[in-house]
# Entry
Amino acid sequence: MILPGLVNAHTHLDLSGAAGQTPPTQLFPVWLKSVIGYRMSRSAVDVQADIQSGFKQLATAGTAAVADIRAGGSPGGWPSDRICGTLFHEVIGLAPERGTQMLKSARNASDSSASANITHGLSPHSPYSVGRAVFAGLQSTDDICVHLAESAEELELLEHRTGPFVEFLQSVNAWHPTEILNVSEILAVAHRVKSMLIAHGNLLTAEQWRTLPATASVVYCPRTHHAFGHPPHPYQQMLADGVNVALGTDSLASNPDLDVWNEARFLHAQPSSATPQILVRMATLNGWQALNRTASNTRDWLVLPLRASEPDPFCGLLEADPSSRCTLAEVFVDDIPQPFGNTT
# Structure
């Protein structure tokens, strides 16, 4: 079977060197502290090498498009002419002055590094790290990605201004409770920007996700979700309600690899998962939609063997040896993709 290239709709490639160094913890803010410590230990040269390594892993997995969140002025560039996608420039700053300045810097970085292969966006990181001043400054032309409803500790902070996040924010001198927006206020932003990616959305309620416009997508990262022990993700209910749900890998700070096909295979092995065809769609077409692209943008096509005896070919795809995957280059003839060439 020939499929459009895989789409990793949420990752942090600048954390590709963190494998095994920041294991997920029971309390989410504790893990965040370990990630911050890791980031502070890395030089610009280290970060560039990590991004290069991340892109190599994406290519090996058959990834054709990626949504990458980049901190620190987006060092390391986009070292691939075959993988397209969106580079989200991260914004962090709960204090109004800092948040506004970080938003300006991120927008300048976005405007100064245009490429035909890359769409640039903004990532107001999360409602516990970015305040109302930043969200008010977003424009109708912005593509944004925000981490939202990721943990119970986050929701406690947003709704009650209590819990472990209070101590965490105080410890990094970033406690500004009047700047914190709740989930509904963040979701309302989706109606006045060009598009919104909601990273994780683990604990969104049906009432909340049903308010999303068609220009918003949720990106579920199954193995990271499992590693933190979150309650079951409502992705199937979201899909039933018409929400576009794609798959991502988060980062190697919380995930075993950057292979979005392994995310689909992980879900397939779980009881009561979505059908194999839906899972394959989440790893491909839903991802292209989340990045505001069509599958015709793919430069490489994913090729997988079919089992002649398998009544459901999609089931066979997800249960096959993952090493059996390969990619084909392609060329367009009369707007119809025609794969050709040697496997890579």
Notes: DSSP finds 14 helices and twelve strands in the chain. The CA atoms of residues 93 and 304 lie 44 Å apart. The longest strand covers residues 63-70. The radius of gyration is 19 Å.
